[in-house]
Design brief:
This protein has helices spanning 4-26, 29-46, 55-80, 114-133, 136-147, 152-159, 163-183. It is mostly helical and 188 residues long.
Length: 188
């Protein structure tokens, strides 16, 4: 059984990555925040009695299900409100900044000059845009494998598909990203 501290530490360690993953998926920061908070609450309420080692996979599955529920509710809502046009802009800043998590070559955080930081920001924005353009299953597999660092079996469990499907989705995502980024002049 996970202690309160273990559960709290786990939730604190996962919150930013979970938010970013969900924001990529739903393309709405406010909705992403709500989805992640709901998933965290569900984990704490229903699975706090599980061992701490089981929490990561449980949380990823809960988060995936919460995201699918959001899409279903949105689909129903849009059908009911078909006469209304309520598109929102992409305004609003995100609290999470990927640049805060990147190390420079000497191992320090954020010790770059303004020109290098601006160049890195532009490159990361291009990468984020390309990740957002991936098909949903490819994006989900890519983010779970390379952002959440889950192995193939764990990713298959979270996505509810076979390990072969995970490998296929990841391969297609990596090739699509590489092609799109090369076209923008970003090479490995």
């Amino acid at each position: 059984m996970a202690s309160d501290k273990e559960l709290s530490d786990f939730l604190a360690s996962i919150e930013k990555r979970a938010f970013k993953r969900t924001a990529y998926t739903v393309r709405d920061d406010d909705a992403a925040l709500d989805i992640v908070q709901d998933a965290m609450i569900r984990l704490a309420e229903k699975y706090a009695d599980r061992p701490a080692a089981e929490l990561p996979l449980l949380f990823q599955r809960i988060l995936s299900n919460a995201t699918m529920d959001w899409f279903r509710r949105r689909k129903v809502r849009s059908a009911v409100e078909s006469n209304f046009s309520n598109f929102e802009g992409n305004g609003g800043d995100e609290d999470f900044d990927l640049l805060e998590m990147l190390e420079t070559q000497d191992g320090s955080l954020g010790a770059e000059g303004a020109d290098a930081e601006a160049s890195r920001t532009q490159m990361l924005q291009a990468i984020e845009q390309e990740v957002a353009q991936l098909p949903a299953r490819q994006r989900e597999a890519f983010l779970l494998r390379y952002w959440e660092e889950l192995d193939v079996a764990e990713t298959a469990t979270v996505m509810g598909c076979s390990e072969g499907s995970v490998k296929t989705h990841c391969s297609r995502a990596v090739h699509a990203l590489a092609k799109a980024l090369r076209a923008k002049g970003i090479a490995p």
